[in-house]
Amino acid sequence: MTFKALLEKRSIEAWEIYLPHLSIDCVVFGFHEGALKVLLLKMKESDSWGLPGGYILKDENLKIAANRILEARTGATNIYLQQFRVFGETHRSEAAFDYLPDDSFFKQRFISIGFYALVDFTEVEPVVDELSTDCGWRDINRLPELMMDHQFIFDKALETLRKQLIHKPIGYNLLPEKFTMPELQRLYEIILDKKLNRGNFYRKILRYDILIKLDETRKGGAHKAPDLYSFDQEKYKAALKNGLNEIW
Amino acid sequence: MTFKALLEKRSIEAWEIYLPHLSIDCVVFGFHEGALKVLLLKMKESDSWGLPGGYILKDENLKIAANRILEARTGATNIYLQQFRVFGETHRSEAAFDYLPDDSFFKQRFISIGFYALVDFTEVEPVVDELSTDCGWRDINRLPELMMDHQFIFDKALETLRKQLIHKPIGYNLLPEKFTMPELQRLYEIILDKKLNRGNFYRKILRYDILIKLDETRKGGAHKAPDLYSFDQEKYKAALKNGLNEIW
């Protein structure tokens, strides 16, 4: 079956089961070997990459839809997922499907709800489905050309993540269970795209009182073995909910 | 014409011109006489109040739709308007229209995009349209019972406003052009729902460097005439864009 024939077949089913005109796009962040990465996929018969996405079943809660879409794409459950913005410009997606008939589900106008996800890199098995030829991680500093307005959606997700560092903790879901202080600092530096002073970083992050210093060190390096930390899950959750920095 | 007959007539038109299943709900904040207020309306043949809202034309940008809806309801142009969350639970709105036929536009499932607006109280003329019997301001601390999930939508808007105080300035659009420091402090206190220390507030707000101290005082009170301030629009806009409190 050609890709076009496949889409026409899927269109009939889509009209039956999904809400029309509404899509979900997911910006999935993972952290690996000191780099922040994003999950991208390549559609069949297209030269450019895109964010994983999907549609909302007619009788499905929005958040459950986003979870379902991501689980199918990553194999990971228990993903930290947050809606961050709606993309509602006219003509943002139709052109990508201009070879389809006008009544195709996919060629309609779509208003897309953006979710960002923070996942444990090691738990994700990117899935190539019947509509894509590739699915994998890309360093956020070396993104390929993205389809439609997906670069804009990605930029807004990263901007949201940056702003949230002011009043929410980050790291759980992105770092392994045990990590060193330099690894946590590196994560902040990469999201903020700037170097941080080591002493200031330590002082601020310890003041947040969300870390547990473990009775272990990271062995094997050339230098003095660095201390290992993990997040205090109760305090971390409370800080996510109530905010870290009540400056007023 | 009965209300039901009116809605059935409007339904036919709505299917033609609007995107189905998608609505906009607006939480419009105004500040007046030391109180934060929200604009509510009362639907015909309903005992409860609701947020002003509407639908998106098939070929209309999302933000333009929100502006159009608010302009029709308030008469105000140049409103500060911001999307803040999508409300996508199933069965959140259908029951309010259970007396309509199943094919009514209004009785479908709606995913609603929440916008909050900050408006100059004195510039708004609440409009009672053909579907409502009342439209006016209510003190946020004395809200009537709200329809559907509108209390939840309101709560989320207020929560967003509170969080944004950490990294965005507020006051422009809500205060008159010239205001006193106690008036600005009162606005912060009402949004945060707590008393602030006067000295701390002055020091923090002045450090933001967004105010211009005018060469005038507020005359007429019993006490020493307080100094008047206005916002430095350039600096205020820059702070809105870049954030106030880059703690990292």
UniProtKB/TrEMBL annotation, chains A, B:
Residues 19-162 form the Nudix hydrolase domain. InterPro entries: NUDIX_hydrolase-like_dom_sf (IPR015797), NUDIX_hydrolase_dom (IPR000086), WH-like_DNA-bd_sf (IPR036388), WH_DNA-bd_sf (IPR036390), WHD_NrtR (IPR054105). It comes from Gaetbulibacter aestuarii. This is NUDIX domain-containing protein. SUPFAM superfamilies: Nudix, Winged helix' DNA-binding domain.
